[in-house]
Amino acid sequence: MRVTSAPRRWMVGPALAALLLGVSLVVPALQAQTSPVALAIPDAKTRQVVEREIARAVSRGLPSAPLVAKVMEGVTKQAAPDRIRAAVAAQAQRLEEARGLLGPTPTEAELVSGAEALAAGIPTAMLKQVRAAWPAQSVVMPLDVLTELVARGVPPKQALERVVTLMRRGATPVQIAGLGAAVQADVAAGLAPDAALEVRARGVMSLLPSPAAAAALAPSGRRP
Amino acid sequence: MSRRRPPHALLLLALLARALGAQGDPLLRLDAGFATIQQPAIGSVRGREIADAALVAAFWRRPLDRSTLLASGNLTYARDSLAAIQGVAALSVPWRREPNLRTDVGVAGASFSLRSAGTGGNANAFVRQHLVRDDDGGWVGGAMGRTRRDGVPSATTSADIGLWRRWRFLYGSASVAYQHSSDWLLLYTAGELDARSEADYDLIDLQLVLQARGGPHDLTLSWTRRRVFADGPLAVPALQGSGTFQLTDRVALVASVGRQLADPMRGLPQADLAMAAVRVSFGPQPLPVMPRAVVAEAVVHREVGADSSGATRPRAILEIRVEASDTAAVTVAGSFSQWDPIPLRWEAGVWVARVPIEPGTHRLGVRVGVGPWRAPRNLARVRDGFGGESGLVVVP
Known about the structure:
The complex is a heterodimer of chains A (224) and B (396).
Chain A: H1 2-34, H2 36-40, H3 44-59, H4 65-76, H5 81-101, H6 108-119, H7 124-133, H8 140-152, H9 156-168, H10 173-188, H11 193-205, H12 211-217
Helix pairs in contact in A: 3-5, 4-5, 5-6, 6-8, 7-9, 8-9, 8-10, 9-11, 10-11
Chain B: H1 9-22, E1 27-41, E2 47-63, E3 68-78, E4 82-94, E5 101-114, E6 118-132, E7 136-149, E8 152-167, E9 170-181, H2 184-189, E10 201-214, E11 217-229, E12 233-246, E13 251-260, E14 271-282, E15 295-306, E16 312-323, E17 330-334, E18 342-343, E19 345-347, E20 350-357, E21 360-368, E22 380-383, E23 389-395
Antiparallel strand pairs in B: 1-2, 1-14, 2-3, 3-4, 4-5, 5-6, 6-7, 7-8, 8-9, 9-10, 10-11, 11-12, 12-13, 13-14, 15-16, 16-20, 17-18, 17-21, 19-20, 21-23, 22-23
């Protein structure tokens, strides 16, 4: 038995290695063929360029999901291949920029929100200020509301001031989200965006504890 | 002349009534009015006779899951000189992959007893392919019909192609229709055939339509030039004007004057008419009299629903409402659907979609026909990186 088992072991090793090598080669190829990008872009040349762009971003440690989403948006909107590639590259650049601004260890959701904020024209320094206001909590909702306010026409400086004040006073993400929704309703009713923000921010702040109490109640744990 | 009754009128009415009764929430429009109709008089010596007629018409529509079912019928009655009833049932289906494309298929029937053009009935079927964009579009279609007039059968085939365009409050269309028919008696009574030759003939109609719309009111002018190819080419022009004046949300006045050319596909004769009617709309909301400008809104509200594990919990629902023409195909796409377009449904006069949505920031766009992707007007707008825009919605 021992005499026959040695050659078997000798054969099993390379066979297993070959199998693993084969799987490692075949599975990514299959995944590439069935990935959303592959399914969405029928043109092989465009698909390769876009997939290369995404692979480059992933190799830099950036999440692929927001880039794939950008591809899908472009495909649905029947954008030209060059535009899709450029939009994906620009999104990757914004994600990388957001990572530097929201460091040291931003979550994927924070990166996406940061990239959206940059795309809406919010200056880079403002992202740093948002992170500084909540170093240990998720800044997803403050960034989202900031982006929405600026996209509505509120001057970035004024929008940042109000959002950061709420953050420092201990507002919850739901209260900050409520500010965005209330401003949206006021603007829809005809109020100027900056005036709506002033009125609504004061309303939310009246419900919050004083700055001193807020500092004492500030959470010290890491964000989820 | 003995009084002639339409043989299929009661059957068609019964079918229409059954269809109306079978639907839960139909949209229904009824017209009732009077007309003065001048029609050719059949006989060895041609002449014209004038009849005062009563008109009743119904239009019914029911939106289905991805399509629309339509039916309409009308009855014209002028004692023993003219009685006609027509019915149409059609299904309008937008394409799943190409929402700007829509296919209409339908069947129509008519039963008539006309001093000018005999007694009989007609059945026809049609299919029409539409391309509907924001402000323009086109169609191509075909139809086949069979008519029996005073016991003599005849057949008609037709093909038509047309384009339409909208400029603010003006809507214009141009179309060409070709018909081949053996219903020679119809054109003979209209004076478009010189002899009772009992031969097939061809018709080519060029039609231009211009419509002006102001609020719920509209005014339409239609000009048709027909060329008849039988004994020899013969040109026949026809001009028709019509208008709708909305008195209240549900009541409108409609009027029409001009020449209606002989229609071999439906077996109906040429007539000069002046008509006025009162139109009453029933249903959850009056039917839109005109296509409206595109207005899209998106709101997020919360409702209690079951998640994938079956547990009930509050969830956010994104509701998109788009005011657009009921003939358009409307879709919404966004990051919540991985940008897979979701068709909106026609509900009580507006296009609606309700989609569960996860917390976070979502981009979305709405598209009518093959027009540009637009942000709903109540949302913040951001550039999409493709030369267009997206709406931004933040879900807490």
